Amino acid sequence: xxxxxxxxxxxxxxxxxxxxxxxxxxxxxxxxxxxxxxxxxxxxxxxxxxxxxxxxxxxxxxxxxxxxxxxxxxxxxxxxxxxxxxxxxxxxxxxxxxxxxxxxxxxxxxxxxxxxxxxxxxxxxxxxxxxxxxxxxxxxxxxxxxxxxxxxxxxxxxxxxxxxxxxxxxxxxxxxxxxxxxxxxxxxxxxxxxxxxxxxxxxxxxxxxxxxxxxxxxxxxxxxxxxxxxxxxxxxxxxxxxxxxxxxxxxxxxxxxxxxxxxxxxxxxxxxxxxxxxxxxxxxxxxxxxxxxxxxxxxxxxxxxxxxxxxxxxxxxxxxxxxxxxxxxxxxxxxxxxxxxxxxxxxxxxxxxxxxxxxxxxxxxxxxxxxxxxxxxxxxxxxxxxxxxxxxxxxxxxxxxxxxxxxxxxxxxxxxxxxxxxxxxxxxxxxxxxxxxxxxxxxxxxxxxxxxxxxxxxxxxxxxxxxxxxxxxxxxxxxxxxxxxxxxxxxxxxxxxxxxxxxxxxxxxxxxxxxxxxxxxxxxxxxxxxxxxxxxxxxxxxxxxxxxxxxxxxxxxxxxxxxxxxxxxxxxxxxxxxxxxxxxxxxxxxxxxxxxxxxxxxxxxxxxxxxxxxxxxxxxxxxxxxxxxxxxxxxxxxxxxxxxxxxxxxxxxxxxxxxxxxxxxxxxxxxxxxxxxxxxxxxxxxxxxxxxxxxxxxxxxxxxxxxxxxxxxxxxxxxxxxxxxxxxxxxxxxxxxxxxxxxxxxxxxxxxxxxxxxxxxxxxxxxxxxxxxxxxxxxxxxxxxxxxxxxxxxxxxx
Length: 798
Description:
Oligomer: single chain
Distance between the termini: 39 Å
Strand content: 15-25%
Helix content: 40-55%
Low-confidence stretches: 423-429
Radius of gyration: 34 Å
């Protein structure tokens, strides 16, 4: 019996080739998108599942109550204090990421980012298997444990144990002794070291890297004992029976002991499983992070694409069922039961899925490298989640295959055999309404995606082109791979000034727009004891002119010959919060206010403009900004590179146009917009295919009706209007239903921006117009073909 069903199913597919191609392509495209979404989501959720004790590992989070910041940086003594006072803590370790490190290989310096300094206890907390060596040796100064790949990279086939490795930090070269080799960690973990050095080396390196606003930077002993130096990540391994409440009591006791009744810092626990997806709001985070919002967006879009694919299948099959009604009627007359029809339809669906699933899997493999590169994600089956991948694949495939089959069985079960055999019009109760609702849902989904896509692009365009308060079109930034210009700034500046296309040169601790920040707590200038938070930025004196910042009052930073005391300009927000309309001449922090500037966006448009002061100082310059002519030479970046490396030959500076820096700020938003747009196009194509197939069947049924109308004198436009009327109603209804949903979703997304655009009417007008064009292009061919057919051809069998 099964072979009979298979033979009949294959014959039906061959007889309805166009239907089969549309269905196979539609379902394969929908399934491919769903599988990509599944790969992305499971990869995001797989982070940090690798560690055996992952459920009991926590990171300590510090809340800076003065500046209202949340960060993962904590004081060095915190780990020991927690171990002493919290009995439920098995182990604790401090970790510091070493920035701007250069490692020597064959007399060349290579920049490395995955260098960490840590206690040996790190290896008892996390799963980093040691292949050679002794973890305890990491207690010795100037020692390091490297991964297999690092060992091979720097020592080749030699045994790296006890060999020395040169590390350069700023202008100082250190020799580290290799005391261990560990397995290469998987890609989907947050803390992924390539080299772990001793904590003593980390303290010394940190002390050398710090730049202070005055005086000597803290030494290794100060960093080890001071509770005000928050530079280290602290990880805890708790007992399985312990809970966070007991740890929070210890935190409260430590806060009172070291910071008083109004503590500057308060501490919380963050589970390891929450670090990757829950660290977006942390400042100065050194690790890769994901976004639950992006996961929700992808999940929603993937579900919508699956829905459209299923609706297409149902639409096309229901249309084909009309033409196959005689077959079903005859089979019922000869005794076929509902279960027989169900078996036949399941056989046909199974054959369809057996064709579609390999096609979808092949498409996933073909496009996975490009999609992975575009998303910046590794869409492979990673450690931590193994069975979820095939389970998800099977679940999606069953949904795509079974749901249409169930609906179609219910659809055909009410066909009356005698009406089908007699070739009478089959119009089951609700069939026409069902088809209308299916098309309406497709229109709603497509409109929703298109409106959201246009809205996201509108916000990105607004972000990139908004007046940020400074002239950024002709600026170039220079960032070194070491910590700062360290006394070389003026030499490099003078060399750059000799290049004809350069108008001015300046620099700062960092350059706007930036996610970095520094702030101080100071009394207001109105005589009260109230304190306020002010962000600070140390810059070269020519900063205002080079950046094009508008001076509203007082003097510019460049107007002074001596900078033995700090010269400070305040933005309008700072003047407002300090409580004095004319602060020029006032002393704040360790300097004198000499000017007032217009507010500008020092951070991205996700954040409000903060109260801020800009301080002229030559001791804290980490980045350089260059204002060039509008028609600068094409090799200007090469000239800048030559000038910098001539003075600082061991550096590999990063030279970038400010326009690219601003675009990079909204890289994730651009990816989201592009992905939504891509899915919108896919949804549009799938919906158009379904509409094309359904309209072919529906209009074929009305062929004789149109012929009779033409015989009775109806003009072509009358027939077109009669057909178009229903689709116009569908388009308007879909737009009316999808618009409020899209407005809600876009407003929720725009809440991530302190500065955002508004939703213009043309977003909805364009969506309605695009939908109308798709409908015209999809069904127009069938209508024109039928209308232009000679009525005699359509009526000759009457």
